[in-house]
Every structure is written in C-alpha cells, then in structure tokens.
Design goal:
Number of domains of chain A: 2
Structural class of chain B: mainly alpha
Strand content of chain B: under 5%
Strand content of chain A: under 5%
Largest sheet of chain B: none
CATH class of the largest domain in chain A: Mainly Alpha
Largest interface: A-B, 56 and 43 residues
CATH superfamily of the largest domain in chain A: RNA polymerase sigma factor, region 2, helix turn helix motif
Number of strands of chain B: 0
Order of helices and strands of chain A: HHHHHHHHH
Largest sheet of chain A: none
Structural class of chain A: mainly alpha
Helix content of chain B: over 70%
Distance between the termini of chain A: 37 Å
CATH topology of the largest domain in chain A: Rna Polymerase Sigma Factor, Chain: A
CATH architecture of the largest domain in chain A: Orthogonal Bundle
Distance between the termini of chain B: 119 Å
Radius of gyration of chain B: 52 Å
Shape of chain A: globular
Helix content of chain A: 55-70%
Oligomer: heterodimer
Radius of gyration of chain A: 17 Å
C-alpha cells in the first residue's frame, strides 16, 4: 500500500479510537468538507473513515504517517460516494457547504485594520469559490498540498496517482485559483 | 528550469512550482526583477494561506461540536459501498413495480370479465326447456315423492300391495335407467 517512512508512534494512536478521533477529526473534516462541498456528508464520511481505520488498524504497516493513511481512506470514501451519488434518486441531498462567511467571523483580528481583514476574507472566499470549479481530482490534490500541507510523495500515496499526474492537477488548480483572484493565468 | 529571455512573466508551471516551493533559481531571480509576478505570487499565496487558516478554524469548531466517536458505532453509509445492498434495493424496486402492475391489472380485470360474459352470452344462446321435458321432470319428481311416501311404514306398503306405489316405482326406475 504505502511506502513512505515515518518515525511517528503510529500504533499507539490507532489503538485508541478516542485519541484518533481527537487528533485527526478536524483535519479530516476540513479536507473532506471541501472535497465534497457538503459538510453534513463530510461529518459522516470522516466518522466512517476513522472507524474504518480503527477496525482495520492491523493492516496499517506503519511505513507512512497516520494522516497519510487516513487521507488515503478518506479519498477512497469520497470517491465511492461520488460514484454512488449517481444512484441516489432515493435521497434528496440537502447540501450544506461550509460557509466561509461563518468561518471568517471566527477569525481573531489578525490583520491590522478592518479593511485588510475584509480583503483577506474576500480572498479566502475567492479561493473557496475557485475550488468549486475544479474537478474532484484537482480539488483533492490542491487541498492536500496547500491546505493539508502534504508532501507530493504523500499525496501520491494517498491518491494512488503518479507525481506527474499530481503536478498536472496542481497546475490546473492553481491556474483556476489565480484566475479567480484576478491574475494573469 | 530556465526562463525564456523573451518571456516577460512566469508560466503557469513556474508559478505553481513557486507556490510548491520547488522553483528554480532563475524563477526566484525573476521575482526580484518583476514586481507584477512578485505581487501576484504574494497575493495568491496569501489568499491560500488565509483560506487554510479560516477553514482550519471552522473545522476545529465544527469537530468540537460533534459527539465523540465510539468504537461500536456502525458506519453511516457503509451499506452504500456494499454491492449486496444495491442488489437488494434493485430487487425491492422491481418487486414494487411488479406489485403496482399487478394491482393495476386487477383493477382493470372486472371490465374484461364483463365483456367476456357478454361475449359468451352472445355466442351461446340461453338453453330453453321444452314443455315436454318439464312435464317429464315433474312426473319423475312426483314418482320419487311417491316412493318416499311409500317407504313410510304401513303393512301394505311393506309387502308391495299398493298399486299406486307399485306403478310409481316402475315409472321412476324406468326414468332413472334412461
């Protein structure tokens, strides 16, 4: 499965579901919420991801970070959901995308003035809007690299893509974000 | 990665590499000379960083509001990922459609039955009993009644001494043999 080397005490984390939940839920939630654009669905997928990891912890060989492994499981769950969504005539999905305006109100006053805070908020909202225009793969690798700050090699392991493919998706995603921000791309 | 001398700004790939932190020395040198590229790089990286921070705060707050995970909890959408579940769903839908069609046909059937009866009535005329047959049947019933009455215990009937009973018995026997 995954070939990177990690020095983290991984087995301890996986043996304690509460610790696993406490350490990774919010990080996974952010990734899945912006991958699917549906925060309610993201909560369910994240819970399923953590349970799946906990129950299948014996299959984790410890040759990469726990988060990379979790991201791999979450990516598969999101992909399965995208696939099964075609058959969801029975379910009227009420999408509740993460609200950036709500997020912005959470921020402490890290900017020097209200004007610069407003500009930063608008820029963040533009990034969020740009993400919605991306394909699933582009969005996934963008979130993993720039939001989760995963290394390219870890992204390859989590998604099963080659480095060249990951970089191609990143190029396109960055181009879309630049365009949304009014750049030359 | 060399920068084309005629190229005035960074390409998409160079810009992405810059954000990824894997840009070549000529790209970094270009940023020092080109204010436009430098400003855009700062703007884009700042926007992404702001988005990352805000989304992290949102996720932390959201995750904190959720109930703690339990090891015994069943996955929410686990059945979606099982092919058996989809097979069962398809079979259920097919069964439902079948029942619907059946009910619909059943509601239509009385009309068909009415037409069939009418058609049968038109094709097969009612059977008419002739007066002679009616008379013969009545005679038979009377003879049977006579025999039943004859069985009632009287000394004469026991020994077959009653003429009427004898005649009636012969008559009914003859009709029964027919």
């Amino acid at each position: 499965m995954i070939g990177c080397v990690s020095d983290e005490p991984t087995l301890t984390e996986l043996d304690d579901i509460e610790a696993l939940d406490r350490m990774y839920r919010s990080r996974l939630l952010r990734f899945v919420a912006y991958s699917t654009g549906d925060q309610d669905l993201a909560e369910t997928i994240v819970q399923d991801c953590l349970l799946k990891a906990y129950r299948g912890r014996e299959s984790f060989r410890g040759d990469c970070s726990v988060y990379t492994w979790l991201a791999h499981i979450a990516t598969n769950l999101v992909r399965d959901h995208q696939r099964s969504r075609k058959f969801q005539f029975w379910r009227n999905v009420q999408k509740t995308a993460p609200d950036l305006s709500e997020m912005a109100s959470l921020l402490p006053g890290r900017e020097s003035s209200p004007e610069s805070q407003m500009l930063a908020r608008e820029s963040a909202q533009l990034v969020s809007a740009a993400l919605e225009t991306l394909s699933v793969k582009q969005r996934t690798v963008f979130l993993m690299r720039f939001i989760e700050e995963m290394e390219l090699q870890d992204i390859c392991q989590a998604t099963g893509m080659r480095v060249g493919t990951v970089k191609t998706h990143l190029h396109r995603a960055v181009k879309a974000v630049r365009l949304k921000l009014g750049g030359r791309a | 990665m060399e920068l084309d001398r005629e190229q005035s700004h960074l390409t998409d790939e160079q810009f992405t590499d810059l954000l990824l932190g894997i840009s070549a020395a000529p790209v970094r040198a270009h940023l020092k000379e080109c204010a436009q590229c430098a400003q855009e790089a700062e703007r884009v990286s700042g926007a992404i960083a702001g988005f990352a921070q805000e989304s992290r705060l949102w996720a932390e707050r959201r995750a904190a509001s959720l109930p703690a995970l339990e090891a015994g909890r069943k996955p929410g959408f686990a059945w979606i990922y099982r092919p058996q579940a989809w097979t069962a769903a398809v079979l259920t839908v097919a069964l439902g459609v079948g029942i619907g069609v059946s009910v619909r046909q059943a509601s239509v059937r009385p009309d068909h039955a009415l037409v069939t009866h009418q058609q049968v009535a038109q094709v097969q005329p009612a059977r008419v009993t002739s007066p002679a047959t009616l008379k013969a049947d009545n005679e038979l019933l009377s003879a049977i009644d006579g025999e039943l009455r004859a069985d009632e215990s009287t000394p004469a009937s026991v020994y077959g001494l009653t003429a009427a009973a004898h005649g009636a018995r012969n008559k009914s026997a003859k009709r029964m043999s027919n």
